[in-house]
Amino acid sequence: MSEIIDGNAVAKSIHQELTAELASLKYDRPPCVAFIRVGEDPASVSYVKKKEKVAGEIGITSRLHILPESTPQDELNALIDSLNADDSVDAVLIQAPLPKQLNERDTFNRVRADKDVDGFSNANLGFLCQEDSRAFVACTPAGIIELLKRSNVETKGKKAVVIGRSLIVGKPMALLLMQKGMDATVTVCHSRSENMKEICSQADILIVAVGRPNTVSADMVKDGACVIDVGINRVPSSETKSGYRLVGDVDFANVAPKCSKITPVPGGVGPMTVAMLMKNTVSAYKRHMAK
């Protein structure tokens, strides 16, 4: 029987560690993270509320800036510039997705590297490539590394396959797994990959981030593999009040019996993303206060 990796429990441990760390610091103000939300996308509203709640529980002050859906790029840029220059703000997070008139890449790159706790800017991605300690690593892949470490998953010399090549998950995930200390042998698959089933079935560690339900079936998974499911997909359900249920990118019911360890959806990777955002924010705070 596979071990279910409980992301909620690991995230809670990280929250407690950060709370204790902040309590031990003697700086004259608490950390401050600024959230920027453009528009009223329901998922974005929910995500930002969750982040604000967790920040408050840990002892991090948050400021929420809400801009209208029609906000032009220069107005958003001006807000980012003002937060970059504000010494009382340690971290700046822009909630994605942004409305179509806004350029996400340029917006993420606008955030000063030492306040970019999402780790999406070209500067932080460059630091990650160079294994530079200044890097803020994108929160989802950073959270997955924590799950692997705290679940005692051996990575040294192991075959790791990452399905997905986004800047938010796939690319930084591959870089982290091949870093010194992790030392995995990494293959990245995507929508144009050939023989994906064969490649995945050789993986000791399989990380799936494609955003499509049940992409990975049991015949794609090696016996005893560790499977990390990043996907969060809504599918119709007559059994829930909302009319839908959340599932991952992995066919959990059929894949789980083959695995040594597997993350569930929900309750696996999701809580870790928020936990690592808080960890990055505390790190940014300590750097700023030490100057």
Concise synopsis of the structure shown:
This protein is of the alpha/beta class and 291 residues long.
Which SSEs are present, and which pair or pack?
Layout: E1 3-4, H1 7-24, E2 32-38, H2 42-58, E3 61-67, H3 73-85, E4 91-94, H4 104-110, H5 122-129, H6 139-150, E5 159-163, H7 170-178, E6 185-189, H8 196-200, E7 205-208, E8 226-229, E9 233-236, E10 244-247, H9 252-255, E11 261-262, H10 270-290
Parallel strand pairs: 1-11, 2-3, 2-4, 5-6, 5-7, 7-8, 8-11
Antiparallel strand pairs: 9-10
Description:
There is one protein chain. The chain is α/β, with parallel strands linked by helices and 291 residues long. The protein has ten helices and eleven strands. The strands form three sheets. It has a six-stranded parallel β-sheet. Strands 3-2-4 form a three-stranded parallel β-sheet, sandwiched between helices. Helix 2 links the parallel strand 2 and strand 3 (61-67). The longest helix has 21 residues, at 270-290. It is globular, with a radius of gyration of 19 Å.
Q: Report the span from N to C terminus.
A: 51 Å
Please compute the radius of gyration using only Cα atoms.
19 Å
Q: Strand percentage, roughly?
A: 15-25%
Spatial strand arrangement across the major sheet? 1-11-8-7-5-6
Structural class, from secondary structure content? Answer: alpha/beta
Poorly predicted regions: none
Q: What key attributes describe this structure?
A:
11 strands; alpha/beta; 39% helix; three-stranded parallel sheet; 10 helices; 291 residues; six-stranded parallel sheet
